[in-house]
Write a structure and sequence with these properties.
Layout (H helix, E strand, L loop, with lengths): L9 H10 L6 H11 L4 E4 L6 H15 L10 E4 L3 H14 L7 E4 L6 H8 L4 E4 L1 H9 L10 E4 L2 H6 L3 H10 L5 E6 L4 H10 L4 E4 L10 E7 L5 H12 L4 E4 L3 H13 L4 E4 L5 H12 L5 E4 L1 H4 L9 E4 L6 H8 L9 E7 L4 H11 L4 E3 L17 H12 L5 H24 L1
Parallel strand pairs: 1-6, 1-7, 2-4, 2-5, 3-4, 5-6, 8-13, 8-14, 9-11, 9-12, 10-11, 12-13
Helix pairs in contact: 2-3, 3-4, 6-8, 14-15, 16-17
Bound molecules: adenosine monophosphate.
Length: 428
């Protein structure tokens, strides 16, 4: 199968060649023809599957076939949950449209709106946006969505996790009823299905990889360890393994900051990335991680979602997520594009139930290792981590935030934490 046989136009094929893609990924092979036919698409795909090109390429094809409009109204709207994902999708749109007469821009909160508004004033065909800033600028009369022909909802499940349902509903009222809709989600809960039903019109359903196939190329390991010895163990593993690019997941923003400080005081370059960090700090941390000046990036689930860091060799779960699907997302950051990766989890007694849930989801037992000097505490309770701990930490930290956008994010983190705790207690 080639990109050409999918029916994409020559300027797009040129851009694809420049990117070095040889064959379409499974989600691209499945989604592109349906999008080109003008159908609504509901796709089950997560980051790393090539989903962005899966909707961007045919979207650009369709837009470039349309009659040129002098004032360039926004004809395609791509909604993403996080700023990082918005920036990445926009970078992709730019690259794929290099040889087309298509203008695009991106808007998200946490930064000055003026440069974004100036771009919008010049006229754009494709707008990539996070919900908050989009609605904000629309309310100010600085953009209009009444000429949107194609609407893309990316990472719909994370949108709902972050409490964006109301915002999505508001956006739906601002765009024309007659339009093509593309919706992407890694998971399909009842709420996602409900949302899909309300947005999509007789959609073609495509699936990239079942939830857990990505796991197969990833070496997984669990270190059973006493809770209080986790920091020492992670520093030992990174230092002795001489690992250069390590993504570490923590459950809370507070935990991410604390661990980051400890790493730095042990001589390991590290940065934390989470909802309370300013956009500038997040961009800087990510850039440092990509260019290898920062060895360890400590992230919460929300912040890490959608980050495109190809060929990541090591992912460490400092704490297990309480939602088993998140484990698959987290470790999906390694072993991309067929490269082998290693995913390690530091598991204390109170995470035993989470580990069981994960093993059930992926259908296998993960190898367990115990490192001398970092043994698990035989007297520790296996009672899961108290839900209240997360919430209090989130509340305390959010009181320090200044911009409304930051507080929106910390609220979202809290909402998410709340819904997760609810979910996990349902599961128990
Ligand atoms: P995504 O799932 O959209 O975040 O894409 C994940 C990564 O795969 C990105 O770095 C893309 O540039 C890359 N990619 C997308 N499509 C292809 C393809 N057909 N062949 C090789 N790499 C690709």
């Amino acid at each position: 199968m080639s990109f050409k046989s999918l029916g994409l136009s020559e300027p797009l094929l040129q851009a694809i060649q420049k990117k070095g893609y040889e064959t379409p990924s499974p989600i691209q092979a499945k989604a592109i023809p349906s999008v080109l036919e003008g159908k609504d698409v509901l796709a089950s795909a997560q980051t790393g599957t090539g989903k962005t090109a899966g909707f961007t390429l045919p979207m650009l094809h369709l837009l470039s076939q349309g009659a040129e409009q002098r004032h360039r109204p926004i004809r395609a709207l791509i909604l993403t949950p996080t700023r990082e994902l918005a920036a990445q999708v926009f970078a992709n749109v730019k690259e794929y449209s290099e040889f087309l007469n298509i203008r695009s821009t991106v808007i998200f909160g946490g930064v000055n709106q003026k440069p974004q508004v100036n771009k919008l004033r010049q006229g754009v065909d494709v707008l990539v946006a996070t919900p908050g800033r989009l609605i904000d600028l629309e309310n100010q009369g600085l953009l209009s969505l009444n000429k949107v022909e194609i609407f893309v909802l990316d990472e719909a499940d994370r949108m709902l996790d972050m409490g964006f349902l109301r915002d999505i509903e508001r956006v739906m009222k601002l765009i024309p009823k007659k339009r093509q809709n593309l919706m992407f989600s890694a998971t399909f809960s009842k709420d996602i299905k409900k949302l899909a039903y309300s947005i999509l019109n007789n959609p073609v359903q495509v699936e990239a990889t079942p939830e857990n196939t990505a796991v197969e190329v990833i070496k997984q390991k669990v270190y059973r360890v006493a809770k209080g010895k986790k920091t020492g163990l992670i520093i030992k593993l990174i230092a002795e393994g001489d690992w250069k690019q390590v993504l570490v997941f923590t459950r809370t923003k507070h935990g991410a900051n604390k661990l980051c400080k400890k790493m730095i005081s042990s001589g390991i370059t590290a940065a934390a990335i989470h909802g309370n960090k300013s956009q500038g700090a997040r961009t800087k941390a990510l850039a440092g991680f990509k260019n290898n000046s920062i060895r360890v990036l400590v992230a919460t689930d929300i912040a890490a979602r959608g980050l495109d860091i190809p060929l990541l060799p090591h992912v460490i779960n400092f704490e297990l997520p309480n939602i088993a699907e998140d484990y698959v997302h987290r470790i999906g950051r390694t072993g991309r594009a067929g490269a082998e990766g290693e995913a390690m989890s530091l598991v204390s007694a109170d995470e035993t139930l989470y580990l069981k849930g994960i093993e059930k989801l992926i259908g296998e037992k993960i190898n367990v290792e115990i490192i001398e000097g970092f043994e698990p505490d035989p007297n520790a309770s296996t009672e899961p981590i108290k839900p209240g701990q997360n919430r209090n930490q989130g509340r305390r930290r959010s009181s320090n935030t200044k911009s409304s956008n930051n507080s929106r994010n910390s609220n979202s983190d809290r909402n998410k934490s709340r819904s997760r705790n609810k979910n996990s207690s349902n599961r128990r």
